[in-house]
Structure prediction request, 360 residues.
Amino acid sequence: MRRGVLGVLLSVLLLASTAALVYWDFSAYIETPVEAGPDRQVKVVVPQGSTLSHVVSLLEEQGLVASPNYFRLYLVLKDEADKLKAGVYYFSVKETPADLAADLVRGPRIPFNVVTIKEGFNIWQVARAFEQGGIATADEVLDLASDEQFVAQLGIPLPKNADVLSPLEGFVFPETYYVAPGQTLRSILTRMVQQTFKELRAAKKRNIEAYARVMEETGFTDFELVTLASIIERETALQNEKKLVASVFLNRIKRGWLLQTDPTLTYTVEKKGSKPEAADRQNRNNRYNTYQYIGLPPGPICNPGRETFDAVVAPSKTRFLYFVAKGDGSGGHFFSTNLADHDAAVKKYLAPKPENAKMQ
Prediction:
C-alpha cells in the first residue's frame, strides 16, 4: 500500500517538475530577444485574412520565431490569437517574442495602403482598385497606363503599330500589394509589371518542354502569349479547365479559324468588358471582336494569373475545337471535337428551362 502511495507521489512530483521546467523554458523564450548580436530590421508582410498558423510560419521563415509552438501558445493564453493585424512590419531582432506578439496585435507602425488586383481584372477594374485603395484616382491610373513613354520604359513588348486600347493591359500581375507611404503610382505599376515578367519566365521554366513545343507550333511572342492567356483567364476560372481551353484556341489558330470567344466582344472603351449581348458579335468596329476578325485580338483583354500562364505555355494535347458552358453553377464547360457534338451540347446546356419557356 505504501509503495503504491509512494509511486503516485513520485509520479506527481515528476509531472510537477516537468511542468516547472516547461514553464521556465517557455517564460525564458518569450522574454529573450530574437538575436543577441547587432540590431537589424526584418521586413514581414502579413496578408489580409492570414490565419495564426500562417503568420507564425511567416515569422519562422524570417528567423524571428525559433519556437512556433511556444509563440502560438503565448498568443492563445493572452486571448490574442485572432487579433493579429495584416500589414507591412519592420521587426527588430532585439525584440522578444512577446514584443513581436504585441506588435502584431497593435498593427503596423507605418501606415500603408492595400490594392488587390484579381485574376481577370481589366485595366478599368485595375484603375478602380487603385482608387478604392486610396492610392490614386482611376483617371490617373488610366492616363499613366496609356503613357507610351512610360510603357516603353517598362519594357512591355508591344508590336509595332499595335492598335491596343491600353498598352498596360495584361501586364498588371494579379496580387495583393502593400503600398508604403511615399511610393509613386509609377513605382507601384512598375513593380506589378515586373512581377508579370517574373511569373511568365517562371511558367516557361516550369514547363520548358511543353513551352518549346508551343513555340515550334505557333512562334508566339511573349505579347501574344499574354494575349491568349488573358482570353483563357476570362473564359474559365477552373484550374483543371485552363489547359483544355488553351488547347481549343490553339487548335483553332492552327486551322486559321475565328476564335469566337465572347469575352472579346465587349473589350471597348464604351462597354469596358461588361456582359456581351448577341448584337456585339456583329460589331466590326471593335478590332478585339474575335467573331469578326481571325486570330488573336490586338492585345490582352485582362490581366491573367499564374495558373493561366502555366496553361498557355503548356496546354493539353487535345483535338477539341469547341466548348460551351454547362450552366449548372459549377463554372465548367463541355468540350467537343466537331460541330455536330457542339451543337448538341449547346441545345442541352443552353436551351431554355421548361419553367422559363412557360413564362415567355
About this structure: Residues 206 and 338 are 32 Å apart (CA to CA).
